[in-house]
């Protein structure tokens, strides 16, 4: 799945403090290998990935990769074919802040890594609503209040352009 800007922020706030720099690099590199608009990358040998990450040996790579697995960000599958192991790495969706905080083990690990004050600030940033919407009046406009929408039963869909400011149908 493609990473959104919000996913990147969640990764930075919740997971980066729990991982080594190398594990963080692997996470970002695996995401970077997937072309935008697609959900899988081309098949590549491990030596190419190790070279891109500047990791010297497969054992170190495996150790860093296992951090991502253990923290719940990566699933790994292996198949032995002609005496060669083929691996599939599936990046998992970043959990929502609510899902993260509900996970007692991960949230405790994070609190221990960043300290209680920073942990509570993250909770306030992501979980506490800052405004009581009950004290506000909702004034959001509906679609038909702003745009002219032709009636499809009257064959008005042949050629039209909507001016959102004047609600005028211009042909």
Question: Which helices and strands appear, and what pairs or packs with what?
Answer:
Elements: H1 5-15, H2 21-32, H3 46-53, H4 58-70, E1 74-81, E2 84-91, H5 97-102, H6 104-114, H7 116-127, H8 143-146, E3 161-163, E4 168-170
Antiparallel strand pairs: 1-2, 3-4
Helix pairs in contact: 2-4, 6-7
The share of residues in extended strands comes to 5-15%
Number of helices: 8
H/E order of the elements?
HHHHEEHHHHEE
Structural class: alpha+beta
Q: What is the CA-based Rg, rounded?
A: 24 Å
Largest sheet, spatial ordering of strands: 1-2
The amount of helix comes to: 40-55%
Low-confidence stretches: 158-163
Shape: flat
How far apart lie the N and C ends?
Answer: 41 Å
Q: What's the rounded overall pLDDT mean? A: 81
Number of strands: 4
| Largest sheet features | 2 strands, antiparallel
Based on the model shown, name its key terms.
171 residues; alpha+beta; two-stranded antiparallel ribbon; 8 helices; flat
């Amino acid at each position: 799945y493609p990473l959104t800007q919000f996913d990147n922020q969640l990764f930075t706030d919740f997971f980066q403090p729990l991982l080594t720099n190398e594990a963080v690099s692997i996470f970002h590199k695996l995401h970077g290998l997937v072309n935008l608009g697609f959900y899988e990358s081309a098949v590549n040998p491990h030596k190419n990935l190790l070279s891109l990450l500047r990791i010297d040996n497969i054992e170190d790579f495996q150790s860093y990769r296992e951090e991502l697995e253990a923290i719940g960000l990566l699933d790994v599958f292996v198949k032995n074919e002609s005496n060669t192991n083929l691996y599939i790495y599936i990046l998992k969706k970043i959990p929502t802040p609510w899902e993260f905080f509900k996970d007692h083990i991960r949230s405790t690990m994070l609190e221990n890594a960043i300290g209680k004050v920073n942990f509570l600030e993250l909770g306030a940033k992501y979980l506490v609503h800052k405004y009581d919407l009950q004290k506000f009046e909702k004034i959001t406009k509906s679609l038909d209040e702003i745009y002219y929408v032709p009636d499809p039963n009257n064959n008005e869909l042949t050629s039209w352009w909507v001016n959102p400011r004047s609600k005028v149908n211009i042909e």
